[in-house]
C-alpha cells in the first residue's frame, strides 16, 4: 500500500482545451517571457504554432521565444541548445507542445534555464532539485504520458538517458483531443503501444502498488477497447486513447518501466525504430515471462481487465498481438529490419540499463533476456 506520487497542479482534459491557456496562465500567475518548445513540423504545419503564440500574447506575456528544433528522440545537443537560448533570453516559464520528445526536451530546457550546465549533468542517478522553470505540457500524441510524469528521456548516442525528478512534473497540463485529428495512423499505433507498455510494465515494478494497478488496468482496458476504431479515425476513441495514455503516465509515475523499455531503447538508437514500436516487439514475450516469474501479479492485473481464463497470459498476449496485426506492425524483429547478428548486442545493451532490469519485481538473468530476444526474432 506504500506509494508516493507527484501530480501536476492543474490538468485540463477538454476538447478545445488549448483555448484555456490564457486562463490557465492567469490562475497560475505565470507571466513574463515564455519559451514555446515544439517539434520541427507539426506545430507549424497544423497552424497550432500561430494559435499558441496568439494565445500566449493574449495572456499578456512580454515575449514568446519559439524553439521549434526538437527532433524525435530528442538529443542532448538539442536540449543543451534550447537551455542556452532560454537562459540567454531570461525566460520565466516554458510551454511544451508535441509528442513525448517535445515535452521531454521542454523538461530538460526548464532545468538548464534555471540551473545551467549540460543536460548530462542531470541524468539518473543525479538528484534534480529546484529551481526549475514552471512548465506547461500539451501532448499531441496518445502514448508517452509525459504531460504528467517525472521523467525526461534524452538521447546521447548510443544510449537513451533519463532524468528523474518530482520537480520536473509539469506544473499544468492541457490534454486537448482536438489535436489528435491530425495524428497519422502509424504514429497513433506506435504511441498507443508505448502507452500499453507503460500500463503493463508499471505493474511489475518493485514500487508498484494497488494504485499503480488501478491506473494501469483502466488504461490497458481503454487501449484494448478503443485502439481499432481510433486507428480507423474515430475521434471519440482517439480521445479515450489520450485519456488512457495519461493514466499510464500516472502509473509509471508511481512505479516505473522495466525491461521492455530496456530492450527497446537499443532498437531506437541503433535502427531508428520508433520507441513505441520497439517496445511492442518485446511486449508479448514480457507477458509470458511474467506469467512464469510473477504469476500472482499477472493474475491480479488480468482480473482487473476482466480476463478470468486459466490461461490469462495467452489471452492477454493475443489482445496485444491483435492490435499489432490490425495496424500491420512488424510481427517480429526480423520483419522490423533487425539482423540476427545483432542478437547479443540487444541483450548486452538491455543489461546495461540496470535501472530497468533491477526494478523488475523478478529481475531477468542474461539467460532470460536471451530467451526473450530469441522469441522476439
Keyword list:
377 residues, alpha/beta, Rossmann fold, 2 domains, six-stranded parallel sheet, 8 strands, 52% helix, 12% strand
What class would the helix/strand composition place it in? Answer: alpha/beta
Largest sheet: 6 strands, parallel
Oligomeric composition of the shown chains: single chain
CATH class of the largest domain: Mainly Alpha
Q: Which topology of the largest domain does CATH recognise?
A: Dehydroquinate synthase-like, alpha domain
Shape: globular
As residue ranges, the low-confidence spans are none
CA distance, first residue to last residue = 38 Å
Level-2 CATH architecture of the largest domain: Up-down Bundle
* Count of helical regions: 15
**Strands, count:** 8
CATH superfamily of the largest domain: Dehydroquinate synthase-like - alpha domain
User: How many distinct domains?
Assistant: 2
- In N-to-C order, the SSE pattern is EHEHHEHEHEEEEHHHHHHHHHH
Query: Could you tell me the radius of gyration in angstroms?
Result: 20 Å
